[in-house]
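hey can u check if this looks right to u? its 147 residues, i copy pasted from the old doc so theres a chance i mangled smth
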Amino acid sequence: MEHISLSAELGEICYAIEGAHWIADSVAMGAVPDPDRKQSAPVIISAILLLVENRLHQLGRVLRGEENPAHLLTPHNSTSGKYADREDVVLRAWDWSGAARQSPSQKKENEQPRPVAGTEPSRPLEESTPAQPGTQGEESPPTEEQG
């Protein structure tokens, strides 16, 4: 079974950001002689950054347990458990072979919504005799009947 190397995934994201940075610097320094490539640079940079943003959001969902880590698996981050670097965080795909189970995000969708703090309906207080000042939590001493 293949696992997902978190450091390889973050490394690939870093390479994409570096590529966008390199394109922007090349255009800014006039190192792109072809006018068509110079004009398409902002669109390319935007596309790279959009892919990075979406991948980071997906990685966040995986780390929060809302999405199966198997959805991140690609050739650049694939590793087998025995070859994984001990310094790396290795993500394992959820095992769906057993009984059918819901993913954490599906569980959240099926949960009944809870009221937001402070918006719960107030409950009527039980009627009781008001406490006397200075006697809260004290028991009254037993009285003895003299005969």
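The beta strands are 2-5, 78-80, 90-91.
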